[in-house]
Amino acid sequence: MSSDFNERVIPTSKMGDDSYASRMLRDQDESARLELQHHMMTKSLGYLLHPNISQQLASGCKIADVATGTAVFLRDLSEQLKDPSIELHGFDISADQFPPADQLAGNITLHLSNAKQGFPEEIHGKFDIVNLRLVSPAMENEKDWHDVARNSMALLKPGGYLQWIEGTLDQSSTVLCAVPGGDPEFSALLAEGMQKMGPWANAEKANSTMAWAGRNLAGVLKEVGAREVRQDNTSTDCIPEDRQANTRMFIGAFRTIAGAYVGTPKGFRSMDELREWHAQLQEMTRKEKVYMRFDIHTFVAKKAL
């Protein structure tokens, strides 16, 4: 790796178009929601690193987190491993949600990089483990999935492991009854707001994007050279007592999406109107008559020797 690779935040590639920013907000509330989402999902999974991967950990290994966001995965992993010799590197197209340097352990380095465009050759083949979580919202077409898969695999050493966790996110807008009859008022208010989310209001397009990984990602990983591809499936409601917390977190995600389209012809007229809609839904969850959930898919793939 180059001598400047150990700077705390450095650009490693041209940024290009940030499709995520045009479709979702990156504000303080969203950063907090992403942190909650990480912790809730980790609880549902029961691990930060899949057991098949964690048993490969050794002092001095290097781990990359692609689309790192707030770097919460790396911060949790650093706390769990308690081994400063393990290098943890986060890559994201935007530094807007990077935490202050004084909140990062000494073995965590954050980089500006666009996973769709690829990473510089000097860091190809340098990592023992590469992690990705919930990048679906940034994916616009099948080419994006292939490009990110190929570019992430390129970071791995021969024999290294990739962990890619996605959700069938379109399911999270389906309101399920926690009690007979559910809450029709909640369902109607949610449906009203869902029509103010730009292209996400197009159910066919949104569903094709948000449900793509569970059905297709294993095949893509094999196409780009992965070996021993494994897919494990669980769901966000596998722990019943967490259903309402997850539901409130999903409502927060809808706020983030709708916020990117405030003021557009079919969006909310103002942020105040959006905040009122969001607050009403959150208050309604206190009745615990409904909940929302989605399937979680973990893909574990080994790079050929």
TrEMBL record:
Pfam families: Methyltransf_12 (PF08242). The keyword rRNA processing does not apply. SUPFAM superfamilies: S-adenosyl-L-methionine-dependent methyltransferases. One of its GO terms (biological process) is methylation. The keyword Transferase applies. GO terms for molecular function: methyltransferase activity. Residues 65-162 form the Methyltransferase type domain. Keywords: Methyltransferase, Transferase. CDD domains: AdoMet_MTases. InterPro entries: Methyltransf_12 (IPR013217), SAM-dependent_MTases_sf (IPR029063). This is S-adenosyl-L-methionine-dependent methyltransferase. It comes from Venturia nashicola. The lineage of its organism: Eukaryota, Fungi, Dikarya, Ascomycota, Pezizomycotina.
